[in-house]
Amino acid sequence: MTATTEYTPETVTPEAENENGTETGAVADTGGAGAAEAASAEALPVLHPHVNAWFELNARDLPWRHPEAGPWGVMVSEFMLQQTPVSRVLPVYEQWMARWPRPADLAAEPSGEAVRAWGRLGYPRRALRLHGAATAITERHGGDVPREHSQLLALPGIGEYTAAAVASFAYGQRYAVLDTNVRRVIARAVSGTEYPPNATTAAERRLARALLPEDVPTAARWAASSMELGALVCTSKNPECGRCPIVAQCAWVRAGKPPHQGPARRTQTYAGTDRQVRGRLLAVLRDAVTPVPQKDLDAVWHEPVQRARALDGLVADGLVEPLEGGVYRLPRT
DNA sequence: CAGCCGTGGGA
DNA sequence: TTCCCAAGGCT
Fold first, then answer.
1. CB atoms within 10 A of CB A25
2. A122 touches strand B (CB under 7 A)
3. Same domain? A249 vs A302
4. Where is this region: Disordered (predicted)?
5. Nucleotides on strand C with an atom closer than 7 A to protein CB?
6. Subset of residues 207-266 in chain A with CB less than 7 angstroms from any atom in strand B
7. Domain hosting residue A198, numbered range
8. Which one from A19, A37, A56, A78 is the annotated catalytic residue?
9. Residue A244, by phi and psi: left (phi above 0), alpha (psi -120 to 50) or beta?
């Protein structure tokens, strides 16, 4: 099947009481320096026609891009995809949506069930936040994922990126969606560097806004297509520039692909950290049907101080509920 | 704002 | 085997 028709943003109100064409994007203008911004925006390459055309032919057929996924499906996928590869999200997403097809379905269950269903996706606090977001949506938004960027941003687990992504992917609005893929594409194609800065900068936000096509549907398509380009072609390690639709305009290629200079990105150690201990503890609790005795948790890590600290942390985060008598379980709240 | 928060697959 | 990293958010 062609990918073309699969990425049609759901339009809850097709007539769209005019979604306010003046929306500028998720990125707040930091104010000032208007002249400098205008000047820098003039020389920008026009990338979206090429990338959007490439997307028509190369977009992956992902379930959250199907119309039936709806805003809730888009939102669930965005939570799961935070720092997690598509291949690992797919099966969990399918089970999740089958079990909780609407936000209210998830909100009706204890948060611990969300943590359990999250499985081994990692960063289980995301499951807690998704449950919290579903609860807020049920209580404050009548059970429908809000379409306003500001209202999305107010939900737990939704930051600048996810708010823009849901607004754009689910509702077809015009927002700069600045994830790690898009940041890399912009860094190379426009800035001529191999990698973007470690932390998102005001300059990047400015660039992303300037690259956003005026036409709303085209802008929504660009948000998805530029992200897909970064995920499939303009990858971090071995970019396939021979397949890139904008190789002719790429500043980094033009400069001879200079290697990244400057401080290396922080390598996150894992072995021996609290995170690893937390992961082991939670794995035991996820797989348990009944409350788990302390001794079963003690078995996962040799060092008692770190073990206790990790468990305390899980309790503090609301991922684990301590009961009387030194037994633990996933939260029932 | 730098550090923390999981996991498993590929190079 | 070791290293890198994959659609961030929160404090």
1. 23
2. yes
3. no
4. 1-27
5. 3-10
6. 237, 266
7. 42-61+173-267
8. A78
9. beta
Question: Residue A28 falls within a domain, yes or no?
Answer: no
Tally of domains within chain A = 3
Domain-located, residue A93: yes
Give the model's pLDDT for residue A42: 54
Pair (A48, A110) in one structural domain: no
Residue A78 known to be catalytic: yes
Asked whether residue A165 is domain-assigned, the answer is no
Q: What token pair was written down for A234?
A: 């303009």
pLDDT at A1: 33
Domain end call among A125, A158, A191: A158
Q: What CATH number is given to the structural domain containing A298? A: 1.10.10.10
Report the CATH number that the domain containing residue A258 is assigned in CATH: 1.10.1670.10
pLDDT in tens, A107-163: 999 999 999 999 999 999 999 999 999 999 999 999 999 999 999 999 999 999 999
Q: Tell me, what's the pLDDT at A248?
A: 98
pLDDT confidence of residue A272? 86
What Å distances lie between residue A170 and A89, A106, A127, A128, A215, CA to CA?
18, 19, 20, 22, 17
Q: Please tell me the predicted confidence (pLDDT) of residue A261.
A: 83
- Nucleotide in closest CA–C1' contact with A125: B5
With distances taken from each CA to the C1' atom of nucleotide B1, the closest residue turns out to be A199
> A304 lies in a domain?
yes
Q: Is A320 left (phi over 0), alpha (psi -120 to 50) or beta?
A: beta
Identify the pLDDT of residue A16.
Answer: 31
User: Which 145-174 residues of chain A approach strand B with CB closer than 7 Å?
Assistant: none
| pLDDT < 70: residue spans in chain A | 1-42, 263, 266
State whether A73 and A140 are in the same domain: yes
- Say if strands A321-323 and A327-329 run parallel, antiparallel, or are unpaired: antiparallel
